[in-house]
Amino acid sequence: MAMKEFRSALGETSGPKHMSVEEFRTNGYRVIDWLCNYYEHIDSFPVAPLVQPGDIRGDLPASPPFEPVTFPEILSDVEKILLPGITHWQSPGFFAYFPANASPPSVLGELVSAGLGVQGMLWHTSPSCTELETLVLDWIVDMLALPDQFRSTGLGGGVIQDSASSATLCAVLAARERLEERSPCQTGADPGFVGYCSEEAHSSVEKAFSIAGLGRKRLRKIATDSDQAIDLGALTEHISVDLKKGLTPFFVCATVGTTSTLSTDSVRGVGLISQEYNLWLHVDAAMAGTASVCPEFRYLNEGLEKAASYCFNPHKWMLTNFDCNCFYVADRRPLNNAMSVLPEYLKNKNSEKEEVIDYRDWQIPLGRRFRSLKLWFVIRSYGIRGIQSFIRHHVFLARNFARWVDEDPDFELVKYTGLNLVCFRVKGDDTHNNILLNALNETGTLFLSHTMIEGKFALRLCIGQVWIDKEKVLESWETIKRVASSL
Question: I need a surface site. Which of 170, 197, 372, 465 has the fewest CB within 10 A?
Fold first, then answer.
């Protein structure tokens, strides 16, 4: 076909009309102004949305637009249609689950990352993406006083995952890889791998065993003691029983700051057991890990030198927006061996000479975002002192709230570990406390979640928001007392 005929068949096209740089500048200012207004008035919105399932979708067009929609119209729909269905995680009245910080520096770092559009799967695909990440992860080793084994300058190192769930899965796969390398089994034989965690460990451990193909039945959930920490005697007993059955213990997860109560396993005790039985010790400090930026909370790191891997979430309590999990290994080789697949199109001279880190070999997916940029923005904007002040302020507020609960004759302090989570209940049965929780969340001024502690229904109040202050905590306590007295 001649070129003229080809062009005629194809049709003339100039492509879509893109947003110009000047329009992008105008609309970018518009978005920042919108967010600033949102932050200034965030306390005026109901913390939990007062909508029913299907309400938001019902207000949205059923079909995509054929013609372009102006940016002001899009932003207007965010305000009119989407905002009523938003749970305001950044509200000072949000006390549920664990926090999901989104400080202004982290939002700006995310914006720059999105604008650069980097795909950092290899050092070769963007050297700054890789080298900044390596540097920032080494900075955090210093900031949190983590063991030197996690520095990139040795056999280990750190990488940013999307969440602690992915970090745990990577730890399980690396642990299996390490054991298979040391004790290869016959093709097709089931080595009977089994792992361990406490009953209070995060559900992501169970999910990791399922995804890894080991099966959930291969994870032993060990009973906890009166402090909701893993029972070391029970752990040893389970390992002994499994060995007698001909199974292969290979992995144990210790939790520093459980989801229900922020209780902490004895990492040192679990570490000694892991050494005795050659288990990979993974330490999940997703929420509480950030606290060790303050010297007075570094007891949380006791025994961490015995860990093969460790993770915590800056996107919970270190002022960095979701998603950002710091995952460390003491020896990167099992992790890299488990994750590395090298097709021809990814080969390059730097990787072949092993002169660089290729983070594609440290995670499940091939592709990766420039996540370290927002963390770098946060650390530089606040400094270590600013982050310490942030943590200490929240702990101070939580201690005051725990004291108020403990001193009130109508309430019961169920669990407080000394950080920023308080578990409490009004004196009465579980049904009464469940009714109280629902009534509080319907006020629109605060949002709590719950857990079960030794068979008791307890309300959880976690203080970790960027915009929180003592006045809001006191106001929330008054609301809790008022609603409880009205039921």
Answer: 465
